[in-house]
Structure formats: C-alpha cells, structure tokens
Design brief:
Layout: H1 4-20, H2 28-35, H3 39-44, H4 52-64, H5 68-85, H6 89-99
Helix pairs in contact: 2-4, 4-6
C-alpha cells in the first residue's frame, strides 16, 4: 500500500479520529496559561497597561471560549484562581477593554457562572 492509497487510508483514519474525539472544552490550566503574561498587571496594574503578550493571551481566551460551555468554564476558572493569585477584580474587569477584546465572560468574583 504505497502512494495515493496509503495517503487516502491515512486521511480516513485522521477523519475518523476527529469525528470520534471532537475538540475538548477549555481547561482551567489552559485558561491560566493563556493569561499568565497578565499576572503582574492583574495584581498591581504594573506598567499602567497590559503588555502585548498579555493582550495576545486575552485574545487566545476569546478564541477558545466561543461556546457557552467554554465561557462557563472560563468564568469558573477565573472565580477560583483570582483570589489565590491575588488578582484585583477592577484590573481584571478592565483587561478586555484595554486589550481591545470583546468578551461575554463576566469578569466579576460575585457572578453566578452557571447563569451565563
């Protein structure tokens, strides 16, 4: 099985794997990794505005949270991680605007994430 037949067989296997294992929801680890470059800003407002790498991470979060389940997960991750990481809620709430990112994820420690 060489050449085009081998390629066709490989393509069919890959398609079957993608169909059986659809992309998984965002995890808290992924969410936290995307926003790690923002920690100094989110804790103290260091530099007065978020860095480019921070805003790149915020855009990654935006891209990874396109469905309701992912937005709920991100909301819950923020709620559980923010106090441990000593994130200031006011700075977290201003991050999307400062990075030019539109989000439907409420950035508020008092929000009910199951209601979004």
């Amino acid at each position: 099985m060489k050449g085009p037949r081998a390629f066709a067989m490989l393509a069919m296997i890959v398609m079957a794997l993608v169909m059986v294992h659809p992309s998984e929801a965002i995890s808290c680890g992924e969410f936290n990794n995307m926003l790690t470059p923002c920690l100094s800003y989110l804790r103290s407002g260091a530099g007065g505005s978020p860095t480019k790498s921070c805003c790149d991470g915020a855009r990654k979060v935006q891209g990874a949270t396109r469905n309701k389940a992912d937005r709920r997960t991100a909301c819950k991750c923020f709620k559980s991680s923010a106090p441990q990481l000593k994130v200031r809620p006011d700075l977290a709430g201003s991050l999307p605007g400062k990075c030019g990112v539109s989000t439907t994820i409420p950035i508020n420690p008092n929000v009910n994430c199951d209601s979004i």
